[in-house]
């Protein structure tokens, strides 16, 4: 007795056959198969991207109205996000880092904005600052969750040396060059030195986490070593920068300005340790109601409160340290409850970083595009000039007139 073949709903000729293609299949057969539903993996990503473009704009316009028009802040974020996402994807296809594509797209958007005036008003500083802050919180939480307590205890002395020695030597070298060549005061030179010496956590931490996921150097603790050292390096650079900034523009007690960052570090550690221990027990790990999601949300809120709260009370050194220690202490208790290096909370923050990475690097390169000025005029096409606008306007003049008086000295500090 023959069984009747089940009829497929819709248009059967558009549906992909469940059977795999033979190895000798032609390119046309493979291409035709990828066009059927469901599409192939790469084509599916392209379709998802093209479908998300109008849906995001329609959703944003329905919620905010004018903010999604040409001069709206949300529209600028929309352009930066999708353009940098596309640029990073293209770079990964040609086996280059996706970060490079995001930076190049941001530079291109910044030059288009300044040369053509397609956006009359830049993104409001408070929007840009909040985005950078949240992105830093996300990356520091990922670093704290990725630290291995046992390896960190074993490598504690090496972490301290790697964090403090290179940063201090680099800051001293830059300060000496600034004093003898640029004729800046010593305090300004050390501010410039610690601004240069700070490690970029948004670049180092994702690379180390990727290496850790692939298993390279895990037995020797190399990812943990670099994650901890880079985070401590940033804390040292920020604290030292704040110390010299306070000494330079001090209107009160110099002793208070010098020792205040150390008090801020203690406050940040206490915040992270106390709140992290609370997160061991709240929510209860045996609760069946979305424990992982609640932990992720609470950790993100606690990190944002630490970072932006420190800015509000003007204790700038404890914000990043509070976020890092909060994530690390929380992960210690969660490991005892069964979490491993690839715990689901870390996975949630990996997804969150995919959103903030193009916003961070694209927006950063867009705003700072005046440091790499690309001329579009016909007579100097292809000319790329590096330097600040201060030096560009005075190019060709003597060094004394470029620097001006010490009151007009320029230093680039951490954002």
From TrEMBL:
This is Cation/H+ exchanger transmembrane domain-containing protein. One of its GO terms (molecular function) is antiporter activity. Residues 386-415 are annotated as: Disordered. Pfam families: Na_H_Exchanger. It comes from Darwinula stevensoni. Belongs to the monovalent cation:proton antiporter 1 (CPA1) transporter (TC 2.A.36) family. Residues 84-361 form the Cation/H+ exchanger transmembrane domain. One of its GO terms (cellular component) is membrane.
């Amino acid at each position: 007795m023959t069984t009747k073949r089940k009829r497929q709903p819709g248009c059967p000729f558009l549906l992909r056959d469940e059977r795999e293609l033979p190895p000798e299949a032609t390119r046309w057969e493979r291409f035709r198969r990828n066009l059927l539903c469901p599409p192939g993996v790469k084509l599916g990503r392209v379709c998802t991207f093209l479908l998300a473009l109008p849906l995001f704009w329609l959703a944003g316009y329905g919620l905010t109205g004018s903010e999604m028009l040409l001069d709206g802040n949300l529209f600028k974020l929309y352009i930066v996000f999708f353009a940098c996402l596309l640029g990073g994807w293209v770079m990964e296809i040609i086996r280059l880092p996706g970060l490079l594509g995001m930076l190049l797209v941001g530079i291109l958007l910044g030059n288009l904005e300044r040369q053509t005036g397609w956006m009359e008003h830049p993104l409001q500083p408070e929007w840009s600052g909040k985005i950078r802050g949240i992105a830093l919180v996300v990356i520091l939480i990922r670093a704290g969750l990725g630290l291995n307590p046992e390896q960190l205890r074993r490598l504690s002395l090496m972490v301290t040396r790697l964090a403090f020695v290179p940063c201090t030597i680099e800051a001293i070298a830059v300060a000496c060059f600034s004093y003898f060549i640029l004729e800046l005061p010593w305090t300004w030179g050390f501010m410039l030195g610690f601004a240069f010496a700070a490690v970029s956590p948004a670049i180092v931490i994702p690379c180390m986490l990727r290496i850790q996921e692939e298993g390279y150097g895990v037995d020797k603790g190399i990812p943990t070593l670099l994650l901890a050292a880079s985070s401590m390096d940033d804390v040292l650079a920020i604290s030292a920068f704040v110390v010299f900034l306070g000494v330079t523009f001090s209107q009160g007690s110099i002793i208070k300005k010098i020792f205040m960052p150390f008090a801020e570090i203690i406050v940040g550690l206490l915040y992270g340790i106390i709140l992290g221990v609370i997160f061991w027990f709240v929510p209860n790990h045996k609760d069946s109601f979305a424990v992982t999601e609640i932990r992720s949300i609470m950790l993100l809120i606690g990190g944002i409160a630490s970072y932006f709260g420190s800015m509000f009370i003007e204790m700038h050194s404890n914000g990043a340290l509070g976020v890092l220690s909060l994530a690390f202490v929380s992960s210690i208790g969660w490991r005892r409850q069964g979490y491993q290096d690839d715990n689901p909370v870390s996975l949630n923050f990996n997804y969150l970083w995919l959103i903030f990475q193009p916003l961070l690097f694209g927006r950063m390169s867009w705003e700072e595009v005046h440091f790499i000025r690309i001329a579009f005029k016909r007579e100097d096409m292809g000319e790329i000039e590096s330097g600040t606008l201060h030096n560009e306007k005075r190019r060709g003049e003597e060094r004394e007139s470029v620097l001006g008086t010490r009151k007009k000295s320029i230093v680039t500090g951490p954002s």
